[in-house]
Every structure is written in C-alpha cells, then in structure tokens.
Design goal:
The complex is a heterodimer. Chain A is mainly alpha-helical. Chain A is built from 24 helices and four strands. A two-stranded antiparallel ribbon of chain A has the order 1-2. By secondary structure, chain B is of the alpha/beta class. At the A-B interface, helix 6 of A face helix 2 and helix 3 of B. Bound molecules: adenosine-5'-triphosphate and magnesium ion.
Amino acid sequence: MSHLLVQGLSGLASAASLFLVAAGLTVIFGVTRIVNFAHGSLYMLGAYLAYSLVTWLPRGHFPFWGGVVLAALLTGVIGVVVEVLVLRRIYKAPELFQLLATFGVVLVVQDLALAVWGPQDLLGPRAPGLRGAVDVLGERFPLYDLVLIGIGGVVLLLLWLLFQRTRFGVLVRAATADREMVGALGVNQRWLFTGVFFLGSALAGLGGALQVPRESVNLNMDLAIISEAFVVVVVGGLGSLPGAALAALLIGQLQAFGILVFPRITLVLVFLVMAVVLVVRPYGLLGKRPGGHAASVTLPEPPLAGLTGRGRAVVALALVLCVVLPPFLGDYALVVLSELAIAVLFAASLHFIMGPGGMASFGHAAYFGAGAYAAALLVKHAAAPMEVGLLAAPFAAGLVGLLFGFFCVRLSGVYSAMLTLAFAQIAWSTAFQWVEVTGGDNGILGVWPSAWAVPKLAYAYLSLALCLGGTWLLRRVIFAPMGYALRAQRDSALRAEAIGIDAFKVRWLAFALAAAFAGLAGALFAFGKGSVFPTTMAIPRSVDALLMVLLGGVQTLIGPVIGALAYTGLHEQLVRVTELWRAALGAIIIALVLFFPRGLAGFRRA
Amino acid sequence: MLTVDGLHAHYGRAHILDGVSLTVEPGEVHVLLGRNGAGKSTTMKAIMGLVPPSAGRVTFLGQAIAGRAPFEIARAGLGYVPEDRRIFAELTVEENLECGRQKPRDGQRPWSVERVCELFPSLAAMRRRPGGRMSGGEQQMLTIGRTLMGNPRLILLDEPSEGLAPVIVERMAAAILALKAEGLSVLLSEQNLSFAYAVSDRASIIEKGVVRWGGTMAALMTDEAARRAYLSV
Ligand SMILES: Nc1ncnc2c1ncn2[C@@H]1O[C@H](COP(=O)(O)OP(=O)(O)OP(=O)(O)O)[C@@H](O)[C@H]1O
Ligand SMILES: [Mg+2]
C-alpha cells in the first residue's frame, strides 16, 4: 500500500516536470501553429544554464533558486531570439517545413551546447536543504521530488490565473481558437507570438533547470524530453493547456506504475497510450478539431509527367555509369556508392507516400530500422545467410508498416506527423530496451554479407541493383492504377471515394509498400556496416529522409533521387570539413526553409 | 470617409473582385447588395486586409490602407463584423468583448462592456457565459459588440440579419440606427432588402465582383428594373 503511494508520488513528480515542458509546447503551438522541435533543446539549455549558474553562484537557498529562475528567464530570452530570427519568417510556410526548421535549431543548439559545456555528463549540486528524504507511511521519498510536485502545482495555478485573469491570457486563448480574427480586432500578433514564445521557452527552461539536482545534465536531454513532451501534448490535445496537465498526470502515473508491471517496455507503453488515444480521439483528450478559418485554398497538384527525351538520356547515362564505373573505384568510393544507392531507395520510399500519397511521415526510419533489425536478427539468431535476410527484410518492414500505417493514415497534417513520430519512437525504444534480443545500445554485431558479396565491388553492385530496381518498381507503381488511386485521394478524398476508390485502403497499402522498400534499404545498410544499432531508427534518420525528399522536391519523380544524392554528398562533405557539422547542417536546413519556404521544387516552378 | 477604388482580389487563381469601387460618407449607412456569391463578403475582407487585394486603392480617413495588415487597419478605426460571426467559443461574453477592446479615440465616447450591454440588453444577463453556448442572435449581438469595443469610426457589417428570427432582425435594425445616430458610419452587406431599406441611406449593388448600380436607397426602391436585374433570384 505505502509502496503504491510512493510510486504514485514519484509519478506525480515526473508529471510535474513533464507538465512544465509540455505546457510551453502546447501554448506555443496553440497560438503559432508551429510544432516546435527545438522545445526540447530549450529544456536542455535551461538545465545547462542552471548548472552553470548554480555551480558558479555561492551556495545557499537564495542563490540556488535565483539561479534556477534566472536560467528559466534566460531560456525564455533565447526562445525569443529563435522566434525573431527564424520562426517569425516562416509562419506561413507548410507545416513540414516549419518542423524541419525547428529541427535545424535542434542541431545548432546541440553543437553549441557541446562546444560550451563539453561531451561529459555534468552533475550539479543538490538543492540546499532538500537533500534528504521524507517518511511516507514508512517508505522514503526524496524531499526534492515533493517540492517539485509543489512547484508543478504552483505553476499550473499561475498559468491558470494568467490565462483567465489577464488581457494577454485572454488574447492567447482567443488566438488559439482563431488568430486571424484576433488580428482583425486590432491585436498585433507579433507581440502575442513573441510573448508566447518567451513564456513557453521560459517554462521549458524552468523544467530543465529543476532537473539539475535530480539527474545529470547531458546532450541527450533534448530529444529524450521532446518525444515525451510531444506525447503529452498530443494526448492532451494540441494547444490545450488543461489537456497538457491531464496528459502529464496520466503519462507520469503510467511511467511510475508501468515500471512495476512492465519494467522492460515503459517507453513503448507511453507511445502505445498515445497511439490508442489518437485513434479513439484523433484530436487528443481535450483538443479541438482545428478550425477551418484559413483563407487558403489548396489546388490539386499538377499531373506528374514521365521523363522526356533529355531526361531519359540523362538517366540512361547515369545507369551506364553505374555499371561501368565501379571497377575503377577504390574501396572507400565503393562504400560511398553503396550508401548513395541505399539513400536513394530510402528517399524514394518516403517520397512515394509524401508526393503521390500526400501523407507526411516523420518516422520513416522505423521501417528502415525494421528491415535492418529483421535481417540482423535472422543472421544472428537463426544463422541465416545474407540472401534470406535481404528477402525477409522488406516483408518484416512491410508488416510493421501495415501495423503502424493502420493508425497513421487516418490522420493528416501535424497529427499524422506526430503519430508517425510516436510509432518510430516505439520501434526505437523496443530496439533500445529489449536488450536480450536486440542487444540494446550495444546493437547487433557481425552482420556480414555472404562470402561472394564481401568484396566492396560486389556489394556495391548488389546495392545498386536492389536499390535502383526498388526505385524503379516504386515509379512503376505510381503510374499503375494503384498510383492513380493514390494521387486521386490526395487531391480530393471525397471525389476519389465517389468514383469508388477506398481512400483508406489505398493510403494504407501505399504506406506498407513504402515501408517495405525502406526495409530493403535498411537491410542493405545493415550488411554494409556489418552491424545494427538503435540509432538506425532514431529521429535524426527520419529527418534525413525528409530532408532528401524536400530538398529534391516533393512533386517531382526524380526529386528524391537528386535529393538523396545531394543530401548524402553534403553530409559527407560537412563531416569531413568541420567538427561542428551538425550546426552547419542545421544552419543549412534553416536557410533552406527561410529562403525556399515552398521547397526547392516549388521555387523552380514559381 | 471610406473610398474603395478599383479593388481586385483573388482566391488562389480564381478572380473574385474585378474592380469594386464605392464610397461611404461620414455618418451614413451604406448597403452592399447582391446575390449569393456576388462578392460582398470578399469586398469587406479585402478592405480589411484579410484577403490581400491584388490591385486597387482603399482610402480610409485620408490614409491609404490597401496592403496593410488587418491589425493596422483595425487600429486605424475600421471595425469588421464577419458574416460567420467568429465568436471565440471557449471565451465568456466579457472575454470576447475584451478581445476587441482598443484605446479610446479622440472626440468619441469610448465603448465599454456596460455600454455594449446597454445597446444589447440581452447580453447583460450572460456576461459569464461561454460564447459557444449562445443562440445565433445573441452571438450576432456579441460579435457586433466585440467590434464596437475597438471604438471604430466605421464598421463593416457582413449580413447581420442572416439566419435570425424576425424579432431579432428588428432589434438589429434598431441597434444599427442607434449607432448611426451616434455618428458611426456603416458599410453593411445584406440579402434582406426590407432590412436594408429600414436602415440604409445609400446602396451599391455588386455582381460578379463589380458594382453595377449605385444610388440612394429611395431611388433603388423605385427602380424595379435594377432590382429585378441584380437582386431577384
Ligand atoms: N475561401 C474561399 N476560397 C475560394 N473561393 C471563395 C472563398 N470564399 C468565397 N469564395 C468565392 O468567392 C465568390 C464570392 O464570395 P463572397 O463570399 O464574397 O460572396 P457573397 O456576396 O458574400 O455571398 P453570400 O451572400 O452568399 O454571403 C464566390 O463565388 C465564392 O464561391
Ligand atoms: Mg457573404
């Protein structure tokens, strides 16, 4: 009994931290409609800043809490800087580009934090006077966690007062419902947006700062917290503050008790709850269906054209080069060539659902990873040869795609992006936590190709054949009846239904098909490296795929190919020339979104 | 007071306004008439900057306002009451009114929650009620009140009688006349000719994005040919 109580209390403590972060995220989304990936980075910055301030200031109650508050305020200011420099310019850009730009900020902040605070975990001082534990029905419970619960409650109360009792709060609530109308009533939204960013970022910073006495500060905090915060915000309903509070409580308790019942799959559990909530209530527990007040009109995409004479010649030349050139290349170049081929197939598979399908996936790495793990597990546990692994991978990834896609293709826009992300996180946490099978963080080693494919030349030919073949097959599907149905439902689901197309089924199948091809790419990747790690399906890889597609242009067929080549080349170069390649990549992403808010292809067409 | 000259507007590639021109004099109620889809609402949105005009001039109190942001246009003293009301459903009546509040303007009695409740007494009893739980007529009063809180010199009033019971329509007409008596100018959009006749001084008839007829309300009532050509369905 007392054990359960203590467990519930520690659930409340994590709910309090989660709430601080999620509240900021949801308020920012509500007003600006931007899903801010960089919110986790602000949390991390809050923690680092608090660490520095608290260790630098003299010991004592006042310096400690002063340092925490100061860190939160500084984080708020950093958030405003990000808003003014980057986000303010892209409020009208498509959602996916906004997400990408904020991910660019994530990359920049990661490298900056690395440069300033170094790679090692930092352990801050404990909170003065709160080092001990209290006695709860005979069990020990950390005093600091109790204070944390209190702080969570106080912040909730203050936010409630802010939103109910001040003009700023009333305007924020109004803008969350209909920001255009708020503008027509004479409110300068710039200030509202900037104010909201300060508030949200400061809350994230506070959340981070309050973690310093509890756990070490490190460079993984950003993506770890952002996926949890996304879950809370989506479960509660995007833009709903009470929703965020409710969902934080739910998730906090789930984590606390989940660890008792299913110690191995706490991470999976959280994302599963999110998936279930989104299926039952697509807009979250307390969320509203997004209002239809945007004056924008969506025009159907122009029809896709096959290749013309010149294009055919270029493609033919490239293919000939692929056949003739490899014997003249060195081992390193051959490895790069295989990786390029794999990137092309990976990008083409994502493009298949994004371009012709009109669906966004923020978690395409899940299927890449599913293929990689399926092949690796077969090799490792069933001593299967590479050929079996390569054959099984697309089926395994396709099955995962069928399962995840069943939920994801029902939603659209930000919600579907969030759901695909959540499922990718489920896949990632399974690989990460199921140590017995997957080796967890240590990955699976010794995933080597069959003897004939060990030479780099043979492997390059194998990758080229399978990846270009796969890309060609996907292209064939686009011009087959399945492809027409897919494009028809993208342009008008209603009209497609009227001519007898089952939009859901088409989207679902397309999703699974794309997953299968991503899985093939993943398996080739695994055999190429000889190993698989959970990072194979982590968020950055999903972002890689998105970047390739967006770089090349969503509505062109050759786009993903060019995007994959350009992006992989850029990546290689950046890693070679600078230590700060992440920051450089992030800056490039931000610049691309700022200067080509419709994507490179959209720019070309305009 | 408000002069619209050759205003063009597009939705995507669809050309909706094809050179709308009209003038609203100080203190007058000017009605924009026309069939469904003629472009009345689009004219108002283009004046307000909600649909960016693609060509043309809008002059309000001597300032050129075309191309400015809606909030700047609102701050210049132009109030906008949308046809679909766009009440903030989760906010109470008082909070909805608060959203519209702007600084008082010189030489004008400033609007307050109390004054709005005097104009629309039925709102007085429901100051704490969420806007989403009000009848259509009450919402219409609230959306007008919300715009008045910005102390406008001129309001764009888009189909205030739409979907309302006859008694409420009468009360709406009385309110508009009361506002006019205070010196407020109104550009009204209407389908209901008798309502328009009851409150308006002058009329412009719009069809396919162009003003086809302009004159006093009295002249329109005697010009049966114009009414038949542009208004009857
Ligand atoms: N958001 C939009 N996107 C595309 N077209 C639109 C949009 N809003 C209006 N239209 C089109 O613009 C034209 C003019 O519409 P508008 O709403 O201005 O007409 P109206 O005169 O106000 O009609 P009503 O009396 O029905 O309110 C119509 O043909 C309409 O279909
Ligand atoms: Mg209208």
